[in-house]
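Translate sequence into structure tokens.
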Amino acid sequence: MKLLERWVAVFAAVLLLSGCIKVDQTLTIEPNGSGTLDMEYGMSEQTVAQLEAMKQMSEGMSQEGVEVESKSSLEFDEEEIRNDFADKNLQGVKLLDVSSESRDGWKYMKVKLAFDNLDALKKTEFFEDSDLTLTKNADGNYVLAQKLGSEEMGMPGPEASTGAGTSEGSAAAGGEASGAPDMGAQMMQGMAAMFAGLRIAMTVVVPGEIIESNATQVEGNRASWVYDIDKDPQVLTKLGGQDKMRIVFSGKDLEL
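Result follows.
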């Protein structure tokens, strides 16, 4: 079991195969620091079947003494998810619900966790590499940040689209290859077809008024980062240019 969990890094291998991934995650933080994580992830049934065939093939090769790492980042077996969670015996985290369903040619898995605090949540596979932090600033407000980048999604980062950090990027900066950024943008747009169907929606509900955020949508104390390539072909470029989810919210009457 793994996901999108850490939500952004969890799908890299699968995205390289198909891009047909849908992820909807809501992290809710209560005033006492505890909270819940609700997530739904989906993949086309055709891709699930292909991955299952690959898994069976790799298991056969392993029996012949050939080591093959083919376990999918996504797991659609309810019992296996429950067993995997029980085996880990994570303190401060409880698996509340697991369910699956198929609709419109897609297979979906829903998972809900409860956690005592963010430190406990960070021990799960969903957040262990997310660099999730909650700090208090000089104004007495809280700053919540989490890694969000194209590298975790298996996509080219900003340096790939601009040439930054490379000899080509330096040449572009000097005017010798002024077309490099345009070429990078064209490449990202060309990749959009490969990632058709990709939709990632990550929502965070905080216990105080949101003062500042780089979310794509903010409503009340709810901030969402929504990336839907079917509605916005520039999603890959936007993911490549953003490395953190960030929220600043009021610390009034809070001691997290």
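Note: The first helix runs from residue 12 to 17.
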